[in-house]
Amino acid sequence: MNVIIELEKPLLELEAKIADLKKLNETQRVDFSEEIAALEDKARQLKQEIFGNLTPWQRVHLARHPRRPLALDYISALSGFTELHGDRLYRDDPAIVAGYAYLGDLPIFVIGEQKGRDTKDNLYRNFGMPHPEGYRKAQRIMRLAEKFHRPLVTFIDTPGAYPGIGAEERGQSEAIASALKVAAGLRTPIVVNVIGEGGSGGALAIGIGDHIIMLQHAIYSVASPEAAASILWRDAGRAEEAAQRLRLTSDELFEFGIIDEIVPEPLGGAHRDPERIIADTLGATRRALERLVRLAPEELVDRRYEKFRRIGSHVELAHDSAAR
Amino acid sequence: MAPTPQWLRRRTVKPEPAGDVLWEICRSCGERLYKKDLAEKLWVCPRCGYHFRLHALDRIALLADGDFQELAALLATGDPLQWSDRMPYAEKIAGDRKKSGLLEAIVVGLCRIDGVRVGLGVMDFFFRGGTMGSVVGEKVTLLIEEAARQRLPVVLVTASGGARMEEGVIALMQLAKTTAAVERFSELGLPLITVLTDPTTGGVSASFGFQGDIIIAEAGAAIGFAGRRVIDQTIRQKLPEGFQSAEFLLEHGQVDMVVRRSELKGVLGKVLRFLAAQAVPA
Q1: Whose CB among A149, A225, B151, B180 lies 3.0–4.6 Å from A243's, allowing a Cys bridge?
Q2: How far does the CA of residue B47 sit from the closest CA of chain A (Å)?
């Protein structure tokens, strides 16, 4: 169960009450405007109380909120999106959507990790967990972007690459490793948007780029909190503790120099104003691309190299006696 | 094994012997083996052929002809998350250093393998499960950059549980960093050969592990993206026989060859000579 849904319940109830009252106000003779103003005040206060100071674990759930805008919501807001299917090798993976579209007048290729809206949709999308063929489709689209000199825009939203028998048999490691390699050397601009959950190598596979944008309440981490807890302590039940320790929020990632820009979300999360969030994210993408398309491909790739080259934290010891 | 080479004698720290000083039990057939014999047999069970996990320094001694010029030997983690759970990350690292005799989970340097000069990186599973954090990412990158400067092939021997959780997203980004180095190196027409040993999973298999031009798996090694435990928990069905073994990967087209430890150096030498003949214009 998503903890945010529990948290926001009283707020939603209050907002429904306000809406009812406003309707009454229009149709009845009695003037409810004072009551409405008072309730709106209360709603503002309640919203601040609920969302003003979220814990990392609550932010994980906000990033997974069932009404949060998904990759296709952003992609559909572009003009003339045409979906391109398949890896030409095995099958089409619905957990990754890809194709081309126009961002304003700019022709771009897009790749997004797509979760489902409901249970049925989630079974079809495999909960946004791609198989190797998804990452191979992504590689195909990356190469098309390079060949036709179109920028590439990606949308990250996955708990991770799918851990299953078929995925292993068909080379999940190789598919991700190759996607990383293609992106690292791609001679066209890449803008990455972390819109929901950025979980592990499965997220990073479409996460190498020249400008990394992250939504305020998205998360991005070496592994989902559940997987991290299971790896660290053999206990997925300690996910909340892992979420706290992993430093997976946008402000922390910005501080680490992993991401370049944060798109602020309304209090309560992106799903409370999806249109604005989608417009703001695409606007930020557009601004980054306008700058990046001016760079020569060689310079672009060199700068990308330096961007990732400097990430890390190490010290040089005086002597290996430290190993004693 | 051959007498201790000079480079190994220069190292001041030796790994602490784990378990029984004299005897080792084979994990596969349960045979009780005399450690000194086992070391001479390259840590391969003489009864069933099980390949024990090898310390990085033993692996280097096995592969390098004579001298090994270590690079970036003194790099240590900066603990970017200031991580602490049952104990501080720094304390875990101190324990790993004792256990492995190493400062980090990989040793990189320049040497010859069967006469061919190469950049060689060897991971050590006994150090934090061979996980990749800042230092492993940096050392792999430095090795590849140095090999590129000297126009040398690179051999990476992997043994890793993946990205290091205690360094969070910084560890994840080491996949991107090392990949960028491999990509640039590859553009120069230089060969990268990876040797996947037991176990190689997660962020290491999903980055340079499977980015080799030639990928060699050591006999019996467990290799995959997701660990067995994660797959078990996710799909809750019985895994096929030999799932994620080197032989399974060969059958599924994921690796070029499966090689026994005793033949590894010879095979590497042959592959290197074939590829390096073109890759190293005078």
Answers
A1: A225
A2: 30
